[in-house]
Amino acid sequence: MPTTAAYATLPAGKDPVVPSHEMSLAPGILRQVLVASFIGNFVEWFDYASYGYFATAIAHAFFPEIAPASALLATFAVFAISFIVRPLGGIVWGHIGDRTGRRTALRRTALSFSIIIMSGATFLMAFLPSYARVGLVAPVLLLLVRMVQGFSASGEYAGAAAFIAEYVPTRRRGLFTSIVPASTAAGLLLGSLLSGLMFAVLSEPQMASFGWRLPFLLAAPLGLIGLYIRLRLEDTPKFRELKETHHITKAPVTELVATHRRKIVIALGVAFLNAVGFYLVLSYMPTYLMTEMHVGSVESFIATSITLLVYIGLIFLMGRLSDRFGRKTLLIAASVLFIVFTVPLFMILQGATLFVIILVEIAFGAMLTINDGTLPCFLAEIFPTKVRYSGFAFSFNLANALFGGTAPFVATWLIGLTGSKLAPAWYLMFAALVALVAMLYSRETAGKPLAD
């Protein structure tokens, strides 16, 4: 029989093998599950934040021979190219997670492997030689490290959300899975705070020489902490039930594509807005403010940090509201709000004071939390247990590869092509329209047992 150590004592005579949504999760195990899921995504998005926030310094270190605007574009191109491997990583980690478990007896899991590789690749960023030392080898090494990081990170978000969803009760699934996007925002917040501090105390030559490397050093100890916690956890009750009844599929990806194509398309559509919105609003915005709005670097990071603090608080509220009003309702509401308000908010940014910029960023963050706080639970719920990890990881990472990682590049390119500083707004508005259409064809998943 599957172990029931993770759960409070059941009434006498009850079969311990019951759906996880009907069980009472012991508080100690719940904390471990949430912390283990938090750490990996925190490290991943701290890395993305550091890369995005220090993009101008990284551009100077690796592309000094070209014009600043082109160097920045090249830096974002490396950022975008590294996302190409994420769908492949999603397939690999999804296969491991759906075939061998979210957590195996041999202590080798998708979540454990991914955090080791991811934190290691991020740590290596601090030691990459610059263009001045090794010439063209430098940007090649930069690209390789970013691709390894992208491959490993592709298992984190989906794995953490599926892990939590399969542990917690149905009625609170939205609230608890919202810790996954909260962890990404927390990683961005730490990156923003460090960036603002370093831009304030270091000169521009110091930033270009060694300053941008310092944040990446934190990845190693954070990754080891996350790994230690994960190795102490058991597999999820839902997966143990699946294994007990011998319903594990031998080829999760094949079954996913063969029988769940409609769900994949819906997941891609709604994740389109999440990918573009997340990387434009929370990662690219400081660079946009500095390069296009000519806002000071410290002021830009102050605005972003305040936004992220509000964002983290709202994420949990949106997760709770999705439990009450439904995933479909909130995801449609997010799409409509972005369609209506994106362009006007970007227009307000033109020549705005710091106070107004903060209000605009908070408004964008609030709209994004409606999508971001609901999406991980929705994606975990639409796919059945035997292909949940694969379905979530493939669709989410494909959306991020096509639209998320490319968002800063596309925004910078569109501004250069059109000469309009509103170009990123129209792109974000289009993403919201696609997500709206996708959600109109979806079914409500809140308040129901996980699909099997």
UniProtKB/TrEMBL annotation:
Pfam families: MFS_1 (PF07690)
Protein name: MFS transporter
Superkingdom of origin organism: Bacteria
Cellular localization per UniProt: Cell membrane
Stretches that traverse the bilayer: 33-54, 66-89, 110-128, 140-163, 175-202, 214-233, 264-281, 301-318, 330-349, 355-380, 392-416, 422-441
Membrane-protein topology: Multi-pass membrane protein
Keyword annotations from UniProtKB, A to Z: Cell membrane, Membrane, Symport, Transmembrane, Transmembrane helix, Transport
The organism's taxonomic lineage, starting at the top: Bacteria, Pseudomonadati, Pseudomonadota, Alphaproteobacteria, Acetobacterales
PANTHER family for this protein: ALPHA-KETOGLUTARATE PERMEASE
Major facilitator superfamily (MFS) profile domain: residues covered: 33-446
Stated family: Belongs to the major facilitator superfamily. Metabolite:H+ Symporter (MHS) family (TC 2.A.1.6) family.
InterPro entries documented for this protein: H+-coupled_symporters, MFS, MFS_dom, MFS_trans_sf, Sugar_transporter_CS
